[in-house]
Every structure is written in structure tokens, then in C-alpha cells.
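task queued by scheduler; priority normal; single chain, no ligands, no partner chains; default sampling; output format set to C-alpha cells
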Amino acid sequence: MHYDLSDQYVHRSSVVHRLDPRVKVVATLLYILAVGITPEGVWWAFILQLGLLLVVILRADLSIFYTIKRSFIAAPFILAALAVPFTTPGRELLQLPGLGWTLTQPGLIRFGSILFRAWLAVQSAILLSATTRIPEMFWALGALRLPRLLVATIRFMYRYLFVLADEASRMLRARASRSPRIKGAAKPSLFWQGRVAGSMVGSLFLRSIERSERVYEAMLSRGYDGQMRSLVRFHMRHSDWIFILSVGLCLCMVQVFANLR
């Protein structure tokens, strides 16, 4: 395989790594929910939520900048909110000459809040993947009574995503080997390139369906009944209950004081 899309689990023997996967999944969801409902412009609340995340990172024996560096993957998605500072009505701060755009104070506050929310949510998801193995995460989703079909779909998508990426790479190499560049020849039109790319996408789709059917038949022949079984069993301990209650209490306190402003 030429593509490695394996999980970003970091092997440590910390307290966070030893927690029950269900606890870590629930804590991450609670954190993302709390960040999402934090009122706009309450910067001290965002800072406290960041501090809580940094404490868990340190307890997980990770570098304090581990999730911060990786969370910049969410930067391109912030581009969708670039128009918010100019489209939100309110007190004007700056007017861009020639464009007719006006920067407003409520728009700037809303944009900063969106930026903080997305950044913190991505950091929490990265921390979850760094302290929880992917099979354990899927087991936790099943144990939390998520629909079995949904969990199985996500599991197989993760397992075979790198297979499809490698298949696409082979198709690109095959196209390159059959399309030599002749010096002085005209470059193919954009329409021709789009048609070839569409044909490749369709071929990849058909190959994916055929491979999925072969894989499913092989699984049925080996006794697959729709449920992935695991030899590992987790049990809630006192440390798990203390962790989830502490995280929930801290998030609730921040929300209460943030809404009392």
C-alpha cells in the first residue's frame, strides 16, 4: 500500500489512555456540545475550555502543542465564515474602499466565536484519536447503543478507505503511462481532461462495488452476521466515573457563568 491512513493513536501509559473508551467518547461529545452552545463573545469561557483541554492533554502525557499543531487542519473550513464580519449588521468599524464592504463589531465577534468553536472542537477530536485506538472507539460507539448499521458502515469505510486510495493511485499511474507528453504537441483541452477524469471516477466506483461484494461474500462464508466481535471487554471503574463527572461539572459551571453575563 502506498497510502497510510491508519489512526493517530499515540502509545502512552497515562491515566487518560487507561480510561474506558465510552468515557472518552462521551466526554468528547459533551465538550464539543459545550463549545458549540457557548455564547458569542464570551472569550473567558473559551479560554477556560481551552485550559480544560490542555489539562487533559498533559494528563495524557502528550506534548502541550500536540493537538494545537494538528488542529490547524480546520483552517480551510474557516474560509466559509470569512463573509460573516461583513454581512452581520451592527456598529461599523471599518469600510473597505472600492468594495463596498463594511466590517461590523457584531460580525467580528461572531467570526471570532466561530473560529474558537471550530478550533477547540477539532482539538478535542484529535485528543480522542490520540488516546483511543480505533477498534476501541468503534466498540464504544456500539456499547453506547448507536445504530449497528451506522457503526458498521463507519468501521468498513475506515478499513477500506486506504484500499480505494491505492486503487486510485494505480489508475493515475496507468493513465500517465499511456499518455506520454510529446514535445511540441498541443496540450489536451480542459473538456477532454474532465471527460477522462469523470471516466476514471466512474471506473473507480464500479471497482469499489465489485470489491465490496467480494469482501461481503467472503465475510459471510466466515460467519459474519452483521456484528463485529471483540475479545476486549471494558468495565467502568472509579477513575472513569470521577473523570466523566469532573469534566461534566467543569463544563456545566462554565456554561452557567457564561449565560449569567
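post-processing summary
- The chain has a mean pLDDT of 83.
- The radius of gyration is 24 Å.
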